[in-house]
Write a structure and sequence with these properties.
The chain is an alpha+beta fold. The chain has one domain (3-135): Alpha-Beta Plaits, CATH 3.30.70.141. The protein has helices spanning 12-16, 20-30, 44-50, 60-67, 82-90, 103-107, 122-132; strands at residues 3-10, 33-40, 72-80, 116-118. A four-stranded antiparallel sheet has the order 2-3-1-4, with helices on both faces. The longest helix is centred in the first third of the chain and has 11 residues, at 20-30. The protein is globular, with a radius of gyration of 15 Å. The protein binds adenosine-5'-diphosphate and magnesium ion. Adenosine-5'-diphosphate is lined by residues 54, 59, 63, 93, 111-112, 114, 117, 120.
């Protein structure tokens, strides 16, 4: 697979439940390189842009309310086939379909309160990374010891 970048956001429930370390550990353990990371309190305007595709859905207001209710951790992750690999690690959107062992499957009972966002395509990832990060906030690092991942 090709090296890709994807965007992830740990939603407000993560900091309020004090589980950011656990979730980031799972992302790192899988083998993603974290190339961008910051704590943000996002504005309604940014939340509405990020979720623009859902603007006409019944859950849109609830979604924007939730995502702006507290700080989030926004991250850019890099790795082989990173977009799909992260979607798989997160699990299905619907709470009842998210398999145990996935991040969503292990941490939420309700679809509207899942704890993590992951870009759904390479094009979405580029769009979302540009919304949340300035180019200089992304650090392209390699430690030379990644062969085992
Ligand atoms: N039926 C729903 N009811 C409440 N919230 C929903 C529903 N569908 C999606 N959401 C919320 O909106 C977010 C974006 O939805 P979507 O893009 O379809 O899923 P995903 O986050 O898996 O890409 C979901 O992560 C979830 O927080
Ligand atoms: Mg989505």
């Amino acid at each position: 697979m090709a090296i890709e970048r994807t965007f992830t956001m740990l939603k407000p429930g993560v900091l309020s439940r004090r589980i950011s370390g656990e979730i980031i550990a799972r992302i790192e353990r899988k083998g993603f390189d974290i190339v961008g990371s910051k704590l943000m309190r996002i504005s309604r305007a940014l939340a509405e842009l990020h979720y623009a595709e859902h603007r006409d859905k019944a859950f849109f207001q609830e979604l924007v309310d939730y995502i702006t209710s507290g700080p989030v951790v926004a991250m850019v992750l890099e790795g082989d086939g990173a977009v799909l690999m992260l979607r798989r690690l997160c699990g299905s959107t619907k709470a009842e379909d998210a398999a145990p062992g996935t991040i969503r499957g292990d941490y939420a009972m309700h679809t509207g309160l899942n704890i993590i966002h992951a870009s759904d395509s390479v094009a979405s990832a580029s769009r979302e990374i540009a919304l949340f990060f300035r180019p200089e906030e992304i650090i392209d690092w390699k430690d030379g010891n990644n062969d085992w991942i």
